[in-house]
Amino acid sequence: MRAPEHGRGMRASEHWRVMGTQRHARVMRVLLAAALLALAAPIADAARATLRAARPGGTPLVLEARSTDAEWIIRVTEAGAETQVITVETDLPERRPFLADADGDRAADLWVPVIGGNASTAWDLWVMQPDQARFRRAGEISGVGFSRDQAGRLVALGREGCCTVSMLFHRIGADGVLSEVFSVNRRLDDYGPQRCTGNAIAEPAPPAVVRAACALEAGRMPGVRLGPP
Fold first, then answer.
1. Which of 20, 133, 195, 210 has its CA at 20 to 30 Å from residue 91's CA atom?
2. Which is it for the CA torsion 71, 77, 80, 83, positive or negative?
3. Tens digits of per-residue pLDDT, 27-42?
4. What is the spatial distance between Cα 104 and Cα 40, in angstroms, rounded to a whole number?
5. 154-160 and 164-172: which strand pairing?
6. 3-state secondary structure string, the chain?
7. Residue 59 burial by CB count (10 A; 0-12/13-18/19+): exposed, middle or buried?
8. Peptide bond before residue 222 is cis, with ω within 30 degrees of 0
């Protein structure tokens, strides 16, 4: 006599119920792991850097920099003693600060990334005060690259649209404040007499500086290249 079919059907139903329960458990484990990773992400993604800022006539300052998801916190020490804590709001917590002499005094100045857009990045510039073992904020500067020319001006290289390259010249005044002085704009799609011109901002662009900047190869900058690295 044949065995009743309902017994076999109940066993199959039980099998699929167990399989479904196991599959649901696996999905829940995956979701839980993803949630834990999401909670840990701000810690895992936090960037850290130790910088040694050279200064004339003194030992280097040590800068311990760390980021949260919204700011850079930089602890400045001299011979192990804390002299300053710098906090800068940022949209770029994963991009590290760097050091470069912005004003030509042979002391390393602090550049902290704050905003990124296309290839250009805005940096908060802090100029070292070597005798005080501290840094003073000069202002914000934006570009794809930076240099210091022979006259000590800070130059930012930027792009405007598809076809214009600009060099924006800055000066750090006696008050320590960064200001725009003049610019040189160079069109890459025009070979006429107006393809490279100087433009006044706080003062006229010196003709010799304009000629020298316009004679540079594409991508080159006047003076000493500073960064970013």
1. 133
2. negative
3. 444 443 343 333 333 3
4. 42
5. antiparallel
6. CCCCHHHHHHHHHHHHHHHHHHHHHHHHHHHHHHHHHHHHHHHHHCCEEEEEEEECCEEEEEEEEEECCCEEEEEEEECCEEEEEEEEECCCCCCCCEEECCCCCCCCEEEEEEEEECCEEEEEEEEEEHHHCEEEEEEEEEECEEEECCCCCEEEEEEECCCEEEEEEEEECCCCCEEEEEEEEEECCCCCCCCEEEEECCCCCCHHHHHHHHCCCCCCCCCEEEECC
7. exposed
8. no
Is 50 in contact with 65 (CB distance < 8 Å)? yes
Q: Which pTM was predicted?
A: 0.76
As a residue count, the chain comes to 229
Distance CA 63, CA 52 (A): 6
The answer to whether 170 and 155 have CB atoms below 8 angstroms apart is yes
The C-alpha angle 106, 122, 40, rounded to 5 degrees, equals: 105
Note the pLDDT tens digit of each residue in 103-125.
999 999 999 999 997 678 999 99
Dihedral class, residue 130 (left if φ above 0, else alpha if ψ from -120 to 50, else beta) = alpha
Residue type, 23: R
CA-based end-to-end distance of the chain:
85
